[in-house]
Amino acid sequence: MKTFLDWSAYDTYGIGDAYSGIPATGGNYAKAVAVCMHSRDCQKTAKGVMCPSFRVTGEAKHSTEARVAAFKAALNEGSDARAFADPRLDEAMDLCVSCKACKKECPSAVDMTLIKTEYLAQRHEIRPPSLRLRLFGAAPEWLSRYKTPLRLAIKAHNRLPALAKFVERWIGVTARRPLPEPAAKPLAAMTESATGERGAVVLFVDTFCQHFEPEIAEAAIAVLQHAGYAVRVARPAPTDAEPDRPLCCGRTYLTTGLVEKARREAKRVLAAFQDEIAAKTPIIGLEPSCLLSLRDELYSLGLGPQVGDLGKQLYLLEEFLAREHQNNGLRMKLKALEAQRALVHGHCHQKAFGAMKAMRKVLGWIPGFSFEIVDSSCCGMAGSFGLEAEHYETSMRMAELSLLPAVRAAPEAPLIANGFSCRHQIAHGSGRQARHVALVLRDALEALPSGG
């Protein structure tokens, strides 16, 4: 069976292992599906993230185990790619939010996020992707090429209920939630420091920071420069066919099954970082889903060993600072903030990759600052999931499991959330604004000495 992703990592799975029931068709992809050992951890509702859809429906059919069963049945009964036309797969995957929790919390490490990407890519071969899916998937291109008209159109959508309802009927984008509005001002042309006593770093500015919240990238630059690093913002390689279009991790393409476009973006990233890979320069990202996609899901695109070299140099801002503190003696000069207690919501990918420990550490450097990390599953926004009309109610039910009640219970506490989607969901569900850790750290910086 032709697959769109590289599943060779699963080539030896099933040899001598306890599990069985690998489907007759599907090759290594079938092996990736069959790693499920039916522990049913995906049907628990205690601590953790997995499985958001089961948690809100209470129905086993919306769990990771049930999705695996549906794929096994379809691959056993179908014929090669035609197996993906099985309507049972549509039902099984409908509420999957690609949270990545199963890869971390499932004892068998079922990677349902990548399984879903392959499923969507196969479905597109049978049935062309919808206009809505193509719009969401290609958001990085639309924002780069048509940002001003898009901004005006989104502002009109958010202010004219009749227009929002028309869009909902036309392409299925909910009228019950405002769309994120692109920023009026672009990312400032920050002065990139040529030297830094602690060495050089590269800042990867993702699509969401670039076009919606450039102040986060600006804050990260200020924090890194204050800490003693020479900062350069990542830009496309001189040989790039689109040198003026910002780099993109390809995440929106992967989550919508547009794999070839994701592969194109990944190649742009690898080309842009050739020198950094050779020099082992740290590359720092801000949006968890973007940076961690580069560190994890790039392997699935079959782009060679350089992907592994790049992955070793990729850090979220808080991960990099925590590592430098532990290994290289970084001690930041921070001052107390006016607010002394905050609530922190972790993005699903931060939790799946163990990055919340770094968040705890760097926030703990702020004098007199205390915080509580909300014990929550997925916020429910999950990229475009919460914007889809048929999923709006489920999205809000996910938020109401624990996140929004915790926010309402602490009306005076500042809110910290690194995920763009998470901040959007919190704002919609509570009317309050959460902030990225880069902004919090910037506010806590002690003023540099005059002339420093």
From TrEMBL:
GO terms for molecular function: iron-sulfur cluster binding; metal ion binding. Residues 85-115 form the 4Fe-4S ferredoxin-type domain. InterPro entries: 4Fe4S_Fe-S-bd, 4Fe4S_Fe_S_CS. Keywords: Iron, Iron-sulfur, Metal-binding. This is Ferredoxin. It comes from Methylocystis bryophila.
